[in-house]
């Protein structure tokens, strides 16, 4: 299925857990156009304004496979990210989420390392391994693309 980004109004408000919209599977991006660039710019602004670690497009009402994330003072936007491999060793850390009230933030167990394939905003393909804070935030945001929230996980 193809979604026309220009027909979707990205919201400034963040959808909160309980909204059925957040539970759908976001669709792949097929067009790497100005609308995609504008969406990513908007998402980066929200992450900066909210001092968040990351954001998935669906959290602002746009159900496409786009995430932005920050760690180690750097930022990364990923289009159509796929986790291709995870390390069979887990790490437990506290996680927050703009779509979840702070009272429900929790420790989450995740693979300590993962390999991800993705495209950038002009469609170039990338593959890289991530660990530490990067592995955590990227796995969290990619969960959103499949409708999964930290509240689905038992506190670790
Ligand atoms: Zn989140």
TrEMBL record:
Keywords: Hydrolase, Iron, Metal-binding, Protein biosynthesis. Its EC number is 3.5.1.88. InterPro entries: Peptide_deformylase, Peptide_deformylase_sf. Transmembrane segments: none annotated. GO terms for biological process: translation. It is an enzyme of class 3 (hydrolase). GO terms for molecular function: metal ion binding; peptide deformylase activity. Coiled coil: none annotated. Gene3D superfamilies: Peptide deformylase. Binds 1 Fe(2+) ion. It catalyses: N-terminal N-formyl-L-methionyl-[peptide] + H2O = N-terminal L-methionyl-[peptide] + formate. Fe cation binds at residues 97, 140, 144. Its cofactor is Fe(2+). The active site is at residue 141. Removes the formyl group from the N-terminal Met of newly synthesized proteins. Requires at least a dipeptide for an efficient rate of reaction. N-terminal L-methionine is a prerequisite for activity but the enzyme has broad specificity at other positions. HAMAP family: Pep_deformylase (MF_00163). Belongs to the polypeptide deformylase family. This is Peptide deformylase. It comes from Sphingopyxis flava. The gene is def.
